[in-house]
UniProtKB/TrEMBL annotation:
This is Peptidase metallopeptidase domain-containing protein. Belongs to the peptidase M10A family. Matrix metalloproteinases (MMPs) subfamily. Residues 1-23 form the signal peptide. Ca(2+) 2 binds at D217. It comes from the Eukaryota. Residues 163-327 form the Peptidase metallopeptidase domain. Zn(2+) 2 binds at C124, H282, H286, H292, M300. GO terms for biological process: collagen catabolic process; extracellular matrix organization; proteolysis. Ca(2+) 1 binds at E257. It comes from Glycine max. One of its GO terms (cellular component) is extracellular matrix. A motif (Cysteine switch) lies at residues 122-155.
Length: 370
């Protein structure tokens, strides 16, 4: 087989994507940029105006809130092009109750302050309800939505992707590489190495960096906006990163975020500071086959506040990954400790990552590249 045309094609495709591959905002020293930026608003801050709204009310913009709930699976039967009204109807009340249950809020069906504050937070782009199965709290109550058959396999509190995809039985080592267009420093690459090491500590898997991006099992890159995989990034805050289930191997991070490479992220005065290792550890969990956990202390919990470091695997994370790959024979039952996992004094903003449940997209050209 003549692979020369394939190599040339890959090169031409990479050139065509130079407009979406940008230098990531990576900060090796937190103290050098404490006052460099002003706080930014959240994507859904307008929903704060709906606090106290309940069934029977009518407010301008409620249609947008319904679209939000549709996006995340709470209106399973609504057609994509549906035109929602601004009326607080029975369907919206039902969606809110399900949402409140998923996020451990008081189930009232009313847009109370706690519910609205949760809604406006930046979050994971994966739906909370997929094919009728909620990925939140599923293990705690062992329940699924009634409008479809369950698709998620649940063990303890962690979840696995539909079909329980994993790297092939007998896999001992996975290679990873970085997108050449990013030109990442050794310090940045070292953050990812540390993140991989946290999973290797508790499983039989090992991870090794390779220079061959197209030949690596896992391919890591920072991208901006619509980068061709069907999951466009949204700029600062919102969706931080996404990774795909085995054995796809793609791991993309939003280049527009204020990524902290080293230093104490919890002391940053910048509301948008995001700890790179914390996000990397979470996304690697997706790459290995884990879905989101309903345990807030778990690395695989869907959200993480800005100015927070959360890299130590919780018991739920360990049980999930060992269910898939077994235990490291040298694992003594506890993982390495890290910097204090606390929010900034003002609470910070809640940021998320995304791990799509499908590793296949229609844009095959881009799938080949990434």
């Amino acid at each position: 087989m003549n692979i020369k045309p394939i190599i040339i094609l890959a090169f031409l495709i990479s050139l065509s994507l130079t407009n979406v591959v940008v230098s990531a905002r990576l900060f090796p020293n937190v103290s050098s940029w404490l006052n460099a930026h002003a706080p930014t608003g959240g994507a859904w801050d307008a929903f704060l105006n709906f606090t106290g709204c309940h069934r029977g009310d009518k407010y301008d913009g409620l249609a947008n809130l319904k679209s939000y709930f549709e996006r995340f699976g709470y209106f399973p039967h609504a057609p994509p092009s549906s035109n929602f009204s601004d009326e607080f109807d029975d369907a919206l009340e039902s969606a809110i109750k399900t949402y409140q249950k998923n996020f451990n809020l008081n189930v009232t069906g009313v847009l109370d302050d706690a519910t609205v504050q949760q809604i406006v937070l930046p979050r994971c782009g994966v739906a909370d309800i997929i094919n009728g199965t909620t990925t939140m709290n599923a293990a705690k109550e062992n329940e699924t939505a009634s409008f479809s058959k369950p698709k998620f396999h649940t063990v303890a509190h962690f979840t696995l992707f539909p079909g329980m995809p994993r790297w092939p039985e007998g896999t001992q080592e996975l290679t990873y590489a970085f997108f050449p267009g990013n030109g990442l420093s050794d310090a940045v690459k070292g953050v990812f190495a540390a993140a991989f090491a946290r999973w290797a500590e508790v499983t039989s898997l090992k991870f090794r960096e390779t220079a061959s991006y197209f030949g690596a099992d896992i391919r890591i890159g920072f991208f901006s906006g619509d980068h061709g995989d069907g999951e466009p990034f949204d700029g600062s805050l919102g969706t931080l990163a996404h990774a795909f289930s085995p054995t796809n191997g793609r791991f993309h991070l939003d280049a527009a975020e204020d990524w902290v490479v080293s230093g104490d992220v919890t002391r940053s005065a910048l509301p948008t500071a995001v700890d790179l290792e914390s996000v990397a550890v979470h996304e690697i969990g997706h790459l290995l086959g884990l879905g989101h956990s309903s345990v807030e202390e778990a690395v695989m919990f869907p959200t993480i506040s800005s100015r927070k470091k959360k890299v130590v695997l919780a018991r739920d994370d360990i049980e999930g990954i060992q269910f898939l790959y077994g235990s490291n024979p040298n694992f003594n039952g506890s993982t390495a400790t890290s910097a204090p996992e606390r929010d900034a004094s003002d609470g910070g903003r809640c940021l998320t990552c995304v791990g799509p449940s499908s590793g296949v997209f229609a844009l095959l050209t881009f799938a080949f590249l990434f």
